[in-house]
Inverse folding.
C-alpha cells in the first residue's frame, strides 16, 4: 500500500511541534494507542531530526517531516527515518531533492500556479495551506475543479469542528492539524490525554 493510500485510510495527520526529544517516544506510543499511527513532525524546532529518529523506531508509525523548505532538510529528514516530506509551499529545490532521495513529497499549494508546478514534477497529492485563511472549503472546491486527478490534504485552521466539512469533499484524502496533539498536553507530559483527544478525533469522522 502506498503512503498516499495509508494517509487516505487514516484521514487525519497530526501536525506536531516537538521541543523536547524526550517527548518523542511517548508521543509515538500515544498515537499508536489511539489508532492514529501517523505523524508530521515539523522542522520548526532544533530537535526535529532527533525526534524523528527516535519515533522512526516505531515501525507501526507512518512518519513524515513537515515545514521542510530546502534540500538539506530533506536529506536530514531522510537520514532520521522520515518516509514522506511536507512543505508549506511548493519548492522546486525540495521537490528535486525528494525525487533524488526516493521520498514522497506533499507540496503546499495556495494557487492554481502552485498546483501546475507540482503536477509538472509528478506530485498529485498536495497540501492546501493555509486552508482556512485562503477561504476554506469553497476555495478548495474551486481549485480542485480544473484538476480532476489531484487530491488534497488541507492544513491550517482545521479543527474538530470543521474537519468534517473538508473530509466530505471527494478530492480530500486527509486533513492535517495540530489540535490532535496539543502543545500544552505534551509539555505537561500528559500523553494519555493526547491518546484520548486523537481517539475522539477519529471517532468524530467515522
Amino acid at each position: 500500500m502506498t503512503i498516499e493510500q495509508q494517509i487516505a485510510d487514516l484521514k487525519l495527520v497530526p501536525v506536531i511541534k516537538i521541543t523536547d526529544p524526550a517527548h518523542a517516544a511517548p508521543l509515538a506510543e500515544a498515537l499508536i494507542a489511539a489508532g492514529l499511527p501517523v505523524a508530521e513532525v515539523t522542522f520548526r524546532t532544533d530537535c526535529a531530526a532527533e525526534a524523528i529518529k527516535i519515533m522512526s523506531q516505531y515501525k507501526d508509525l507512518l512518519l513524515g517531516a513537515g515545514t521542510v523548505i530546502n534540500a538539506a532538510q530533506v536529506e536530514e529528514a531522510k537520514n532520521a527515518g522520515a518516509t514522506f516530506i511536507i512543505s508549506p509551499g511548493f519548492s522546486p529545490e525540495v521537490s528535486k531533492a525528494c525525487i533524488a532521495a526516493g521520498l514522497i513529497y506533499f507540496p503546499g499549494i495556495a494557487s492554481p500556479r502552485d498546483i501546475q508546478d507540482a503536477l509538472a514534477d509528478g506530485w498529485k497529492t498536495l497540501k492546501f495551506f493555509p486552508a482556512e485563511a485562503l477561504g476554506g472549503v469553497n476555495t478548495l472546491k474551486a481549485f480542485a475543479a480544473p484538476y480532476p486527478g489531484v487530491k488534497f490534504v488541507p492544513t491550517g485552521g482545521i479543527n474538530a469542528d470543521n474537519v468534517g466539512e473538508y473530509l466530505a469533499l471527494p478530492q480530500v484524502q486527509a486533513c492535517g492539524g495540530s489540535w490532535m496533539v496539543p502543545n500544552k498536553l505534551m509539555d505537561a507530559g500528559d500523553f494519555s490525554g493526547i491518546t484520548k483527544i486523537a481517539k475522539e478525533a477519529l471517532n468524530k469522522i467515522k
